[in-house]
Amino acid sequence: MTFRTLCAALLCAVTLGAFADETPKSEVTYRKLPASVYYDKMTGGWLGQIAGVCWGAPTEFRWNDQIIPAEEMPEWKPEMINNAIGQDDIYVEMTFLRTLEQYGLDVSQRQAGIDFANSQYNLWCANNAGRHNLRMGIAPPDSSHPDYNTRGNDIDYQIEADFAGLISPGMPNAVIALGEKFGRLMNYGDGLYGGQFMGGMYAEAFFTDDIEQIVRAGLACIPEGSQYAEMVRDLLAWHAADPEHWENTWEKICEKYRRNPEYQKASNGPIDVKNNGAALLLGLLYGNKDPDQTIIISTRAGWDSDCNPSSAAGVLFTALGYSKAPAKFTQALDRETNFSFTEYNFNTLGKVCEKLAREILLSQGGYIERDADGNEVFCIPVEKPIPSPLELTWAPGPSAGARYSEEELAKIKFREYSMEEDFARCFPGWSISQLGEDMSPGRRENYRGKSQVFMTHPLNRDVPCILTRDLEIPAAGKTILRVTVSYHDDGQVVGDWVLTVRVNGALQTTALISADTVGPDGWVNIDTDLTPMAGQTVSVELANVADDWAWEAGYWASIELINEP
Questions:
Q1: pTM greater than 0.90 (yes/no)
Q2: What gap in Å lies between CA 85 and CA 444, rounded to an integer?
Q3: Nearest CA among 278, 218, 187 for reference residue 179
């Protein structure tokens, strides 16, 4: 079987047998799960994700390659549970649920890509790169292929694959197939496997609270030759050798998966899926099934320290069930408010997941019976997982040449072009470099009352995004360079950044762009006097510099050279 044939088989796996007879097959072994227990555990899984991300959120990426001090661990307060309404760690995966709800289990990967392209939330890392490719017309699976996407090994699908396990109880091949359909929109290789591993753990957690059994079930869903699988085996072995001191295992994670160049190939540093997967496993393995300790350890491990406890707690709370979750996580839960950018609140989320789980059960050859009391019981066929083919992000196979047709492109509401093309439309004559991928940079049709605004983001904490142009300064009169800029505020989070202006390499202007420094309309004019350069042609450099590395997007409305006699 060729690679593409196998991928096609995996993509179809969740729909094979969709109209099969609902009677049991004598040659198949079934595991039974009362429908009421399924619902309790599935909603428990969502609660765990929410609790983990809300508790860890204040620490996210503030500690990289260091353990968060115990005194810096936030104190849990019941009202924190509703901070998840606007969390990308939660609502992105609901886009995939919506696609399945609207189009059915046999929805094409290309349609899944169109729906993801039409999402309106801010994205980062692999998600942002994948969505940008989709909006450019690069269809899946190429939207995640290393030829077009340098973020394939990022954490993204690992933090979004929870849905796949929650709607596929005991059905690992459905989890794997859902990864092939949705995970390939943005991730490749280990980035994809991290999500399939997560989904496999969720699927098993409906039947046991034995953490090692759950972890090994997830491991069986991914290629054994992958570095991600190697990491999982390491964590199991390191925990078995030293089950009391998670800090010692954390040191081993850093030594191998952060400091050894062999495991940093195609890595984007702290956001890499392997070290973050190891962090969530620290919580599961060393938390001893205690919800608090599971979340605290996965958080204190650092890196993406809200996603990791969210993933760990999601699996644990699935095993425990909503009914056994501590009251401090449920007593203030808002069940009625929709999660941002979605059609779902907590109650409707549970309903759509149960609906899809029933459909997947039948598609996989399962059936539903009633017990002596007339209650529904899911009868789930026991199956051996068939992992996706092994791929190496740093040595990828050929891309598929997948592109959207003009008819399909017409369905994408938010078309994108190359950043250079987009930027040139807004600011003719200027060039852009070192543009970071975070927060979906690019042209905005409207922002704060101004049209054709361009949003930039620093490449990283230390490397700013740069706008450059040579300008001829008039020989007479006063000449100023006026830049009209703003900061990020989407109603959920507020950022700031630093604007610097250099002329012929010399720093001329530095300005903090924040809520405290702009005008009442959210914009500010920053002027630089270029009169001393009268009659010269000068090289001007404008920079979007990171301030404290939190929501560092710069919004540019206009760049004008103003000459006054």
A1: no
A2: 24
A3: 187
Provide the angle, in degrees to the nearest 10, between the axes of the packed helices 190-205 and 307-320.
Answer: 30
The rounded distance, in Å, linking the Cα atoms of 352 and 179 is 19
State the span(s) of the chain assigned CATH 2.60.120.260.
Answer: 419-564
Confidence of residue 544 (pLDDT cuts 50, 70, 90): very high
Half-sphere exposure of 65 (CA within 13 A, CB side): 9
Instruction: Name residues whose C-beta falls within 8 Å of residue 231's C-beta, 6 or more positions apart in sequence.
Output: 257, 274, 277, 278
What is the DSSP-derived secondary structure letter of residue 338? Answer: P
Question: pLDDT value at position 5?
Answer: 38
**Cα end-to-end distance, the chain, whole Å:** 76
List C-alpha distances in Å: 180 to 55, 139, 241, 245, 354.
31, 14, 35, 36, 22
Strand-pairing partners, residue 444, are 453
- 84-115 in b/e form (b: 16+ CB < 10 A) is bbbbbbbbbbbbbbbbbbeeebebebbbbbbb
Instruction: Give the per-residue SS3 of 136-199.
Output: HCECCCHHHCCCCCCCCCECHHHHCCHHHHHCCCCCHHHHHHHHHHHHHHCCCCHHHHHHHHHH
CB 116 within 8 Å of CB 202: no
Residue in 86, 96, 164, 151 with CA at minimum distance from that of residue 124: 151
Question: Where does CATH 1.10.4080.10 sit in the chain?
Answer: 3-381
The predicted-structure confidence for 448-476, as pLDDT tens digits, reads as follows 999 999 999 999 999 999 999 999 999 99
Among all chains, which residue has been given the structure tokens 């002596």? 372
For residue 50, what are its two tokens?
A: 């929410």
Angle between helices 291-300 and 307-320 (to 10 degrees): 160
Beta-bridge partners for 34: 377
d(CA 319, CA 213): 11
Q: Which CATH class is domain 3-381?
A: mainly alpha
pLDDT in tens, 165-183: 999 999 999 999 999 999 9
Contact 453, 444 (CB under 8 A): yes
Sheet holding 30-34, edge to edge: 30-34, 376-381, 367-370
CB atoms near residue 512 (< 10 Å): 15
34-37's contacts with Cβ under 8 Å and 24+ in sequence apart are: 34/371, 34/375, 34/376, 34/377, 34/378, 35/354, 35/368, 35/375, 35/376, 35/377, 35/378, 36/375, 36/376, 37/206, 37/321
Give the per-residue pLDDT at 8. Answer: 42
Q: Which of 439, 438, 442 lies closest to 420 in space, CA to CA?
A: 442
Find the DSSP H helices in 258-405.
273-286, 291-300, 307-320, 346-363
- pLDDT tens per residue, range 249-278: 999 999 999 999 999 999 999 999 999 999
Distance CA 97, CA 167 (A): 9
Higher pLDDT: 474 or 2? It is 474
Compute the distance between CA of residue 390 and CA of residue 222 in angstroms, rounded to an integer: 8
Domain spanning 419-564: which superfamily? Galactose-binding domain-like (2.60.120.260)
Query: How far is it, in rounded angstroms, from Cα 152 to Cα 150?
Result: 6
